[in-house]
Batch of 2 targets.
Target 1
Amino acid sequence: MTRRFTGIIKAILLAGIITSIITTGPLLGGKTGSFRFVFMADIHVMPELRGAEGFAAAISAVNKLDPDFVITGGDLIYDALETSYERADLLYDMYQELCEAFEMPVHHTIGNHEIFGLYPGSGIDPAHPEFGRKMFAKRLGRGSTNSSFDFEGWHFILLDTIGLTGNRSYYGHVSPGSLEWLARDLEKTPSDSPIVLCVHIPLVSPSLQVDYGLAEGVPHNLMVTNTPEVLAAFEGRDLRLVLQGHLHIVEQAQVKGTKFVTGGAVSAAWWKGPYKGFPEGFVVIDVKDGAIDYHYEDYGWQAGE
Ligand SMILES: [Fe+2]
């Protein structure tokens, strides 16, 4: 049994979903268009544990698959939350330099580990010019932590799902400002455009429901706490696919016409090998005549060499 196949079986067991994790089958009909893109979650670039080499290997595997573009799913580096400016600066530079090897456009989603100096242990003054989201916005987000683009009649949204607490920590939350940005973005989008939404902290996760149950509840740092508010913004829209990160596992759920896929991790267990049975990998999405097909691609990285 290949590692990839093993990962798929585990995903099905974890998510409690009977349908195939490989083929989603035709979703709602509508626009045509055939293209391929890749979603790379939880890269966690770092100089230690051969983390930079691992990302370079993943990029070279992506280039061979020849997608039209790549979307990264947050937690791009490890780590800006609790570190000095020098280390955060080095990690952002390292990530950006490695990304130059992509032979296609790359769009970046913000994760919790990109929030600079948030934890008091970092010793960073909140008055620092790159404090918090500003470092990502300046270096990777063209001034924002939310972005969108169009491709072949489809609309792609990269939404900031990192909420900040009053005591310098984070939780899963889409802020009022981001919701306003989203409403404005959707206003400009034709109502019949198929939409793909990319987030770091998941909006929906069957595995978290299985792990924690209703009585205990899902910890607020693992899942978005205002999912109903976020999904309400897509009411009447053709939201086909939500790609999510943060959990380092592969799972899927379907609510009406929307498929939610948590896309594993390029770094698996933070470059220490497979995490909960899931190897280092990324999601390859093929859109064919308006239908979505996807699989988790194990790019063959072996940690600890
Ligand atoms: Fe992560």
Target 2
Amino acid sequence: MDSKSLRVGFMGAGRAGTALALALHHKGYAVSAVASRTPASALALAERIDGCVPHAKAQQVADDCDLVFITTPDDAIETVAKELRWRRGTWVVHCSGAKSAAVLEGAREQGAMVGSFHPMQTFPGAGGAGVELSGVAFAVEGPPPLLETLKEMAHALGGWPVEIRPQDRALYHLSGFLACGAVITLLAEAAGLWKVMGYSREQGLEVLLPLLQTTVNNLGEQGILASLTGPISRGDVGTVQRHLDALESQAPSVLPLYCQVALGTVALAREKGGIDKAKERELVGLLEERLARARGLFVG
Ligand SMILES: NC(=O)c1ccc[n+]([C@@H]2O[C@H](COP(=O)([O-])OP(=O)(O)OC[C@H]3O[C@@H](n4cnc5c(N)ncnc54)[C@H](OP(=O)(O)O)[C@@H]3O)[C@@H](O)[C@H]2O)c1
């Protein structure tokens, strides 16, 4: 069956569901039904897609579609799959990064074919439109022919499919957290230091954003080691010492985070060849001592 003639349905008209439904619709897929916990959410999405019917009950989406994406929060996926009646042969797919298709066992037991389709991308807003999917990796999972269709969809959206072993799902997902949520946390801490300097966090972010953007570009163009700059990569121990002193006196809550991240940076600097073994030992000793002191573990 041509995948463009599949009747595609969505359960959960939130951030990811809205973005994926719109993106698939724009690529010519027949997104034909949607349901959500709140009828208004389903209606808002359906109004943006010609031929898409908002349903009050998820069961109607299960009854009317060939391929159903469950785009509820992760914790609701298993219950939604279990509580509905599935026609034999229906394709049921969730979009969680952390979970494998095993959580759809309730649908599989009824004869559905189950899989997962997770874009390694962030959808922060409910609007869903304009989210960049080109170049995005999609973790795809499922038996054939569902798997082939999900791979085809990943390519149609401008991305590419990647297969992750079920036992690696948590690592796969947390790699995304480190590259997205953790970066936001780091930026919040970095921008927050500007409050200590008499500016707002927003002003700090404005100062730091061009630096972050160039760093991201460098990573894409040159890779990890070539993008590494700064005092640790040069072995400037005195500058690191000044950072630690400033944090101890002006922003002690940031000190443990700085030390942990800096220890990781020391390892990268060594891998890059920017510092020798002796400098590595000196930096690690300094950072570990300050980290222990910050945690109140230092004795002597
Ligand atoms: N956001 C991202 O960046 C992102 C990226 C990749 C993958 N994902 C995955 O996509 C899935 C959805 O995440 P999200 O960020 O889009 O969450 P979200 O914005 O909270 O949207 C979830 C939607 O599901 C609806 N819902 C909740 N419980 C439901 C139920 N029992 N039955 C039917 N609908 C229900 C919600 O309620 P209302 O109808 O009340 O609005 C909401 O519209 C998750 O598996 C997540 O891991 C998210």
